[in-house]
Design a protein that fits this description.
With 216 residues, this protein is an alpha/beta fold. It has one domain. It contains eight helices and six strands, in the order H-E-E-E-H-H-H-H-H-E-H-E-E-H.
Length: 216
């Protein structure tokens, strides 16, 4: 009995549903990805073998090689409170409108006596033109800033606050600048903070290589 030959037909696949799923996944990953916070100025921190990741919400003090200090308040849930606190405690006399404008600034890089006038100007000053927060031995305003931070975070888990406190300095920053930053922490009874470094591999044969720390 002869075999019946079935005519061959081209196969068509509707890719509409697959394309929809692909674009949905792409949109999800774009929206869910945590963006790296902007840096005040580009600095080259010293290298270390530490590999502990910095928290997403951090209070970052940046020291440039020419001795300027900047403050970034990365915890958006507390930023407005910190600015309001230092406005009240230091008598800056900022209006609610000026505070709202200040809250949008990504970092602080001016002496307190220049804040009000800067908020009244329409032109934003580039970071490399800012004088930075004074941190010298006669006028260390970082003490005031950290005081407002501790005021706002009072009553919360202080261990979490200590994990959020980061100091990032250029490897060419002179030690007296860092010493005054440490003094600001000590004045506010903060004895633990973390230093941001460039990670590098543990030297083969070193004590840390032979006896790595155990995970928490």
């Amino acid at each position: 009995m002869p075999k019946v030959k079935i005519p061959r037909k081209s196969t068509t696949i509707d890719m509409t549903a697959m394309c929809d799923v692909a674009f949905l996944l792409l949109s999800f990953f774009i929206l869910a990805t945590k963006q790296k916070p902007p840096e005040v100025l580009s600095v080259t921190p010293p290298a270390s073998v530490s590999s502990k990741a910095a928290p997403d919400k951090s209070i970052l003090i940046t020291m440039t090689k020419d001795g300027k200090a900047f403050l970034m308040l990365g915890d958006e849930t507390k930023k407005a409170e910190i600015l309001s606190n230092i406005n009240a405690t230091k008598g800056l006399n900022l209006s609610s409108t000026e505070l709202k404008k200040w809250e949008k600034a990504p970092f602080v890089g001016l002496p307190l006596n220049q804040i009000k006038s800067s908020l009244q100007t329409a032109v934003e000053i580039p970071a490399n033109k800012l004088p930075g927060i004074p941190v010298d031995s006669t006028n260390n305003e970082m003490i005031d800033w950290l005081k407002s931070v501790t005021n706002v975070y009072a009553g919360t888990d202080q261990r979490k606050l200590q994990e959020m406190l980061l100091v990032k300095g250029d490897q060419s920053t002179l030690y007296p600048v860092f010493k005054n930053i440490k003094k600001a922490f000590k004045k506010n009874e903060i004895y633990k903070f973390r230093i941001v470094t460039n990670g590098e591999a543990v030297p083969v044969g070193s004590e840390l290589y032979l006896n790595p720390p155990k995970a928490d």
